[in-house]
Amino acid sequence: MESDEARASAPVVEDVFDGIATGVEVEDIGESEGAIERPWNPEQIRVSTGSFSLRNILDQIDEGSLELAPDFQRGRVWKLDQKSLLVESLLLQIPLPAFYFAEDAEGAFHVVDGLQRLSTLHSFVRGGKHSFALRGLEYLKDAEGALFSDLAVQWQRRINNTQLIVNVIDPTTPPGVMYDIFKRINTGGTPLNAQEIRHCMSKDRSRGILKRMTHTREFSKATNALTDHIRMNDREMALRFTAFWLLGIDEYIENPVMESFLIRTTQLLDNPSVLPDVSVDALEKTFRAAMRKVYLLFGEHSFRKWPNYSTSRSPINRALFETWSVAVADYALGDLEHRKEQIVQAARDRMTRDITYLDSITSSTADRRRVSYRFNAAAEDVAAGL
Questions:
Q1: Which of 82, 332, 334, 373 is spaced 20 to 30 A from 101 at the CA atom?
Q2: Where are the alpha helices (DSSP H) in 247-353?
Q3: Quick check: 362 and 351 in contact, CB under 8 A?
Q4: How far apart are CA 102 and CA 182, in angstroms?
Q5: Do 322 and 240 contact (CB within 8 A), yes or no?
Q6: β partners of residue 102
């Protein structure tokens, strides 16, 4: 059986995407992963199927009635050869897999599955800053190097008239069920993670709030420039702070499913009648202040595991982010500065000796007991020296 000393000194595993380290520790959220309101009532799932020309869909994108998830950078990471082969498939009249859209209460559509394909086709046909020339074609060598405007008129017409099969999720489908549908049907080369799915499901208001929170000097300094993270971990961290700050840990303990908790928070941010602009301003101000306070205490080790025996800097730990950003929020900056040495030592001692605490920020991090333990521990440590 593994000793406490071995567990305490176990190496921290950094998440990697497309061969590049992301700066964020791998998180094991535990059994609550995907545990949203099951079993479903089949009558809650309403999906209709239709056929639309590519021209019609591109027109909807340009009009704004079909949204390609703004700020979703990973949706455009296909290599040029991949994009070109997709266009070649249309020219060869090879049917594409079905697309999934979600309709919201206002009648707008959001892409659930097929974001990369639609982004690629929109860029090629309608141009703009992401326009590209075909390269690496397998059959239609005469089109090598061609822009859409270079293609023969009959080929342009063939692309525009391509019929796409679209499954539309009705807006009456409950958010939790819709979230799970996103997870089930996502067929991209790299499946969307939880925050990427929430981003695709959400509205401009919540996206704007989370973007502003993570595009501040305070956040960038405390996280060592994590802003615009390729897997949207920066937005998820801001959302987690928002969830525990606005809804409170007690509400999470009553319904300990992280996905549901964060979906409810996203809906709250999207609803100005429930969370007016003045409350959003207060939230953003509190968040910026929390980033300053944590950085004052921990410097380059902010939100990272930092036991007494460690001299290197670990990747950011999401569980530490949510607990410490909330823990310091109500304290004055001057008070924390006065007690900095005691607070930091208390936190480092805990990361060195408290195996239960290390477990709470490493594995099964959505478990209600572990969430409660790490929040209580951070509250005790930030009170050191009082």
A1: 82
A2: 249-254, 258-269, 277-298, 318-327, 333-338, 340-353
A3: no
A4: 9
A5: yes
A6: 110, 169
How far is residue 23 from each of residues 73, 148, 219, 315, measured CA to CA in Å? 17, 39, 14, 5
Mean pLDDT, rounded, for 348-367: 96
For the chain, domain boundaries:
4-22+194-382, 46-172
Query: What residues have CB less than 8 Å from 310, skipping those under 6 apart?
Result: none
C-alpha span between 38 and 24 (Å, rounded): 30
CA–CA separation, 198 and 184 (whole Å): 14
pTM of the model: 0.82
Contact 122, 57 (CB under 8 A): no
Which is higher by pLDDT, 106 or 340? 340
Q: How far apart are CA 117 and CA 96, in angstroms?
A: 9
- For 86-134, write each residue's pLDDT tens digit: 999 999 999 999 998 988 888 888 888 888 899 899 999 998 777 899 9
